[in-house]
Structures are given as C-alpha cells and as structure tokens.
Design a protein that fits this description.
Elements lengths: L3 H33 L2 E6 L4 E4 L18 H5 L8 H12 L4 E9 L5 E12 L5 E10 L1 H21 L6 E4 L4 E4 L1
Antiparallel strand pairs: 1-2, 1-5, 3-4, 4-5, 6-7
C-alpha cells in the first residue's frame, strides 16, 4: 500500500462529504422558499429569459411566460397596469448595466388574486467582468403593504374627522385614560 492511496481515499471522502453538505443546504433553501412565499429566478440578460430554481414555488412557470421578460408578464395580464412602467424600468436598469435594482410591483396570481411583491434583481459578474446573468428574488409583501395602506386610510379618516371638530378627545380603555387632541 502506497502513501497515495490513503490520500486519494481522504480526498474522495472529503468530496462526498462536501456534496452531502451542499445537498442538505440546497434542501434547506428549497424548503425555506416553499414555506415563505418567496421565489428565486435566474435571469439571462441577453436573451431576457428567466428560469426558476424551484419550479414548485415559481410564480411564472409557463414556458411562454419565461421569455421576453418583462413584456411577457405584462401581456399575460400578470402585472397590474399601474406597475407596468415600474417593472419595465426595473429590468431596463439591469439591461443598461446596473449592478442591482429593486422595486415594489403589483402582480396578479393565476387565480386572480392581486399581490404586492418586492422584486430585487442582482447581477452576477463573470470572472471576465461581464454580466450575463442575474438573480431575481421575489418576496411577497402583501400583508405588510396592506397594513401600511390600512394605517394610511385610518390616518386620513382621523384627519377628516377632526378637521371640522371643535374639540377632539381620545379615550384609551386599556389604560383608562382620556386626553384631548
């Protein structure tokens, strides 16, 4: 038995262990995305094509919706009209060389449900310095955005109520307090 054989065995074991660890991390990421409502895509800048890393959680799975981005999403009616230009501008920034771009976009699911999505695009630099691909991360922020809009409506409602009032008071029954506003 030569000295090289144990070293080769050690390298093989190390390679197998690293592959197992990578597979485990891959499973963790997949499970995290499945349960979080977040989606991860790869965007090919030159061909304007997206590919989902995990099709089971992808928002846009249909083959015709993965080409000619963002126009295919808009034409399919999956982006609400007031977000059309914001989405085009987001991808235009990447196409023009920006390292990253992000915006809040209003999408429409296949079932017809409208959602708010934080879309974040980050370009991957190749070893030669060129930018051929980017990650597109979509985070469903519908609950947060709806709470913000509810708070804004509440503030506007309160402002309208007190605009013509002579005296306004706030009663806090949880703390048993009364104060004029």
């Amino acid at each position: 038995m030569s000295l090289k054989e144990p070293l080769l065995s050690f390298e093989k074991i190390s390679t197998i262990k690293n592959a197992e660890k990578a597979s485990l991390y891959e499973r963790y990421l997949r499970e995290s995305l499945c349960h979080s409502g977040n989606v991860l895509y790869e965007y090919e800048i030159a061909s304007r094509k997206v590919t989902s890393f995990y099709p089971e959680v992808a928002f846009f799975q249909e083959p015709d919706m993965c080409k000619n981005i963002p126009e295919s999403w808009i034409q399919a009616g999956r982006v609400l009209s007031f977000s059309h230009e914001r989405l085009r501008k987001l991808f235009r920034k990447i196409d023009e060389g920006a390292a990253e771009a992000a915006d809040l976009i209003r999408f429409c699911r296949r079932e017809g449900e409208a959602i708010w999505s934080k879309l974040w695009i980050s370009v991957l630099q190749e070893t030669d310095g060129t930018a051929k691909k980017a990650f597109v991360f979509s985070q469903d922020v519908t609950m947060q955005k709806e709470m913000e809009l509810t708070l804004l409506r509440e503030q506007q409602y309160r402002k309208a109520l007190v605009s013509h009032a002579i005296v306004c008071a706030q009663i806090d029954v949880t703390e048993d307090t009364f104060r004029t506003i």
